[in-house]
Structure to design on (492 residues):
């Protein structure tokens, strides 16, 4: 298994997209921190960039990579290797290299400018988001045979998680404005890892004071250690569930 | 050695395999023959575990292949169309395979030398011609001195010299008591190779006979003529 991870990682590094991604994150982080006089404000701007870019790059790069590795996978499947370990290695290789790119690109600037609880949380959440979207991408890629369709599905998933989901939540909120939905919103936020990450970090920043009654409810839940642990667990479920489903699918896939 | 039991596989509406049962033993050289789309490659891929049958099972040395993936270390497989990662060089592919297989015994690099791949070693896979790619596939199949060789259209795309080299290699390996499963449409070159014939049509196994029995039944000495005889009289079988 280690060997396959080694080959996958070497292959990803040779393909320069991850390097460009790393440089982009590095430039974005440093420029955001040097533009704002208050580095806490910088963190907020960086958060918005991360929540948009990290899932996008992770899901699209991983989907395309899995499709482009079809030959490699085919070659490995006819060898004395467990299918499960081939697939998990591919996942670890992708998640590992994207997480490392994120850690260098965002983690280092954050540690330099804002090495506190919020900074650490943001690095952790960013790495988790990278891994989550690699997992979702692999599920999308194993489910769809056609490459163009698979990449389309990946883009749609990103649109759903980044844009559509918020719209749906707003719609629901307005439709049911007469009912007390504040507590239910805590549960709904678990359905979208991007939203969950955003809430987790925003609540650590001062701006959370401006979020009104729902914000207060959120603070009650996510502000506590139990709340944090539960959200972490939810994020981990967002990793393990797609990985588990995709392994099951891959085990039965005809190559 | 390899036993397939009532293996069926459906791709959408197409019934690729229908209750196929085969027994292959050591020292045999079996030709898988049948028209295009008769399920030969699907059967081979099922044996390799690349295609998972809908029903039925396959055993290798008595172990169900679904649960014992290690059996593939005993198989050398040469695919019909070898597909390799584009940006790897020939030498990378060979080294990767050696690295992944962790093979303890002898490494058989005879074919690499015979095909003259030494000089091409630094070439990237995407720059190779179909024939050279086929040579790489052949080298990989024989590299780890496996007990079973599964060759899907081994000589398609090879020039006459190379295909003769490959044929001689197959005969040598057969004489070592290995099981060789080979499909080909060029029947004339199977003549001095095979000991048994499996004939498939429309996903069904029509017969599995020794070549002597086939010659007797059809009254034809040459395999190509015998098979032609079979195909023409398919309804009587």
């Amino acid at each position: 298994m280690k060997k396959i991870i080694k080959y996958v990682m070497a292959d990803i590094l040779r393909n320069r997209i991850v390097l460009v991604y790393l440089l982009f994150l590095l430039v974005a982080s440093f420029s955001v921190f040097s533009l704002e006089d208050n580095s806490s404000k910088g963190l907020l701007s960086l958060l918005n960039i991360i929540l948009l870019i990290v899932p996008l790059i992770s899901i699209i790069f991983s989907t395309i990579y899995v499709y482009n590795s079809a030959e490699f996978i085919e070659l490995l499947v006819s060898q004395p290797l467990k299918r499960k370990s081939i697939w998990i290695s591919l996942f670890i290789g992708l998640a590992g290299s994207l997480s490392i790119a994120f850690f260098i690109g965002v983690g280092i600037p954050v540690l330099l400018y804002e090495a506190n609880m919020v900074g650490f949380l943001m690095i952790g959440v960013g790495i988790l988001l990278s891994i989550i979207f690699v997992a979702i991408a692999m599920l999308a890629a194993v489910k769809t045979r056609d490459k163009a369709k698979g990449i389309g599905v990946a883009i749609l998933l990103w649109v759903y998680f980044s844009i559509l989901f918020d719209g749906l939540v707003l719609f629901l909120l307005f439709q049911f404005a007469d009912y007390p939905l504040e507590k239910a919103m805590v549960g709904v936020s678990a359905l979208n890892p991007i939203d969950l990450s955003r809430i987790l970090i925003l609540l650590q920043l001062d701006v959370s004071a401006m979020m009104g009654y729902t914000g207060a409810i959120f603070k009650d839940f996510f502000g506590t250690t139990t709340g944090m642990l539960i959200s972490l667990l939810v994020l981990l479920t967002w990793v393990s569930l797609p990985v588990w489903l995709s392994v099951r699918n891959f085990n039965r896939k005809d190559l | 050695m390899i036993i397939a039991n009532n293996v069926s596989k459906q791709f959408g509406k197409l019934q690729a395999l229908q209750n196929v049962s085969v027994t292959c033993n050591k020292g045999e050289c079996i030709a898988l023959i049948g028209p295009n789309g008769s399920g030969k490659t699907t059967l081979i891929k099922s044996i390799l575990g690349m295609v998972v049958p809908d029903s039925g099972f396959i055993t290798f040395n008595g172990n169900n292949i679904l649960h014992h993936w290690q059996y593939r270390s005993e198989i050398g497989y040469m695919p019909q169309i070898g597909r390799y990662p584009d940006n790897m060089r020939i030498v990378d592919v060979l080294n990767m395979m050696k690295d992944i297989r962790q093979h303890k015994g002898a490494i058989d690099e005879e074919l690499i030398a015979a095909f003259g791949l030494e000089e091409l070693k630094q070439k990237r896979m995407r720059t190779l011609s179909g024939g050279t790619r086929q040579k790489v596939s052949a080298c990989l199949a024989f590299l780890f001195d496996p007990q079973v060789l599964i060759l899907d259209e081994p000589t398609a795309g090879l020039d006459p010299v190379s295909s003769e080299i490959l044929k001689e290699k197959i005969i040598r390996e057969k004489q070592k008591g290995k099981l060789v499963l080979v499909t080909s449409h060029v029947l004339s070159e199977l003549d001095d190779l095979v000991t048994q014939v499996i004939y498939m049509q429309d996903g069904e196994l029509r017969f599995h006979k020794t070549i002597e029995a086939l010659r007797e039944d059809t009254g034809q000495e040459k395999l190509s003529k015998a098979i032609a005889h079979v195909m023409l009289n398919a309804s009587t079988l």
Remarks:
- Chain B touches chain A at residues 11, 45, 48-52, 69-73, 75, 77, 79, 83-87, 96-97, 99-101 (CB under 8 Å).
- Chain B is about 30% helix and 25% strand.
- Strands of chain B lie at 2-11, 14-24, 29-33, 55-60, 63-64, 75-78, 148-152, 179-183, 196-201, 204-210.
- The longest strand of chain B covers residues 14-24.
